[in-house]
Structure formats: C-alpha cells, structure tokens
Design brief:
This is Universal stress protein. By secondary structure, the chain is of the alpha/beta class. It is built from 8 helices and 10 strands. Helix 1 crosses helix 2, helix 5 crosses helix 6 and helix 7 packs parallel to helix 8. About 45% of the residues are buried.
C-alpha cells in the first residue's frame, strides 16, 4: 500500500496526485491520510468554542477533495481516506512502517513562504524504512528520465533498486550521477593526485554498481555521468530535467540512530523535481 499525506496545501495536492500515478503504475491501493493535531487547541483554561468540530470538518473536506483528485486522475486506483489524530511527523513515521511508500508535500500550510522544505517532510524523510517521496508543486512536465546518486557504498543499493524499478514502470531512462571531490589535506597541501586515475576509478566503481542492476532490468536505458564536484550541485543540476531524483538517506547520528544525511537533506531543499529518499 502507498500512503499519501495531505493538508490541502498545493504541495500536498501535488503529492496526492503523484501518489495516485505511482499506485497505478505499481498496481497498489492508495491510502490518503490527514493528520489533525488537536493539542494546540486543548487548553482547558482558554477553551475555544466549536474549534474541535471546525478542525474535524475541515479535515473531512480536505480528504473529500483528495479522494476526488485521485478518482479524476487515476480512476482505476483503489483509494481510501482517514482522519488521524496526533502530531504530524510522528504519526506519519508510524504510518509509514506499514506501507511500501510514503508520499508527502514539500511544505504544508504551516510553513513559511520562503522555505522549500517543511518541518514535517524533513522529519519523515530518512527516518522510516519505507521510501519517502517529497513532492513540491510544479508544472507537470514529463522528461522521461529518473536520476539517482551513485556511490561505491552499499548504502546506496536500495536507492538504486528503487530507481531502476521506477524507470522500468515509467518506461524512462535512468541517469546515474557519481560526483567526487579531491580530499583536502590541511596539514599536507603539497599532496599531488592523478586526477585521471581517480576519475577512472570512480567511473569503474559506479559502472560495476549499475551493472549489477542492468542485468536485472535489461529494458532500462542507463547512462552514467561521473562528475568532479560536489554531489549536491551535480544532482540539483540534473533535477532541472528529471521526473524524479532518488537518493539514499545515508546519515547517522552521534548515538547511532539513522537520520537524514547532509547530501540528501540539501537535495530535498534544492531539487526542482520530486525526490525519493530510500533508506
């Protein structure tokens, strides 16, 4: 089952539509949820008459609109809706544990106009086992290309598998981006590197990594760009003409808890297309 979260904002509406399309491609049911946080209104000393009924009615209206959007866009998709009570980020993390994918908007109604990534999406992506797709409202231009970050690390394997599957279902090309930078030696600036040799080593490692999946997905057209530069810049540039960017979550906190890494967080902030974060 795919789960989409909505609060009625433009980004959330775009997320519901994206989830409907993906549910149709994967032949999975779609569950749309709206999370209501009643805590700010439950102050016994300063009650607001009728506020509970109002927020419930608003949530039910948001869900009706979402259901209609799914039926209009993908009438063959089985869709259910539910009003859930609680704090949005923890609720969505819990819901995602029982889904194959969670789709959220980049910024909800509570965000600031200048922020590209809202607090809810940033506290969900990378924190759950299911892939999390973050969608921002943008013109629906189809480029027929999926972009995925490639590294020699085993941590990128789930992201690669997800990207190949998406490319197969969409009949799209897959572009792997392998970005690298020379290490900075503060205490030894005289260190000299053979740039061509390093470039060749990165290309070979990325080619081997992609080759393992090309055998499983022979129908997917694959290209590889090995770029000398920061991975964020390379992936953001590629997002200009991509339908989806796929990255791994990668980061780990000081006590070992998995969190969102700096590269994936930056991609979520700056990419110009939907971003899938895969743990």
């Amino acid at each position: 089952m795919i789960i989409a979260a909505t609060d009625g904002s433009p980004a959330a509406t775009a997320a519901v539509e994206w989830a409907a399309d993906d549910a149709a491609r994967k032949e999975l049911p779609l569950r749309v949820i709206h999370v209501v946080d009643r805590l700010p209104y439950e102050i016994p000393r300063y009650p607001i008459p009728g506020v509970q009924e109002s927020i419930v009615q608003s949530g039910e209206r948001i869900l009706r609109d979402a259901r209609q959007a799914v039926r209009t866009r993908q009438p063959g998709v089985e869709v259910t809706t539910e009003l859930v009570y609680g704090v949005p980020a923890p609720v969505l993390r819990q819901e995602a544990e029982h889904s194959s994918e969670l789709v959220v908007g980049s910024r909800g109604r509570g965000g600031f106009a200048g922020m590209l990534l809202g607090s809810v999406s940033s506290h969900v992506a990378g924190h759950v086992h299911a892939p999390v797709v973050v969608v921002r409202p943008a013109p629906a231009t189809a480029y027929g290309e999926i972009v995925v970050g490639v590294s020699e690390s085993e941590e990128c394997d789930p992201a690669l598998a997800y990207a190949f599957e998406e490319a197969k279902l969409r009949g799209a090309r897959l572009r792997g981006i392998c970005a690298w930078e020379l290490p900075v030696h503060i205490l030894g600036p005289e260190v000299v590197y053979d740039v061509e040799e390093i470039q060749h080593a990165f290309r070979q490692a990325a080619t081997d990594k992609l080759g393992e999946l090309e055998e499983r997905f022979p129908e997917v057209e694959v290209t590889l760009d090995v770029v000398r530069g920061h991975p964020v810049a390379a992936l953001v540039d590629a997002s200009e003409k991509a339908d989806l960017i796929v990255v791994g979550s990668r980061g780990r906190g000081a006590i070992g808890a998995v969190v969102l890494g700096s590269v994936s967080r930056a991609i979520l902030h700056h990419a110009r297309c939907p971003v899938a974060v895969v743990r």
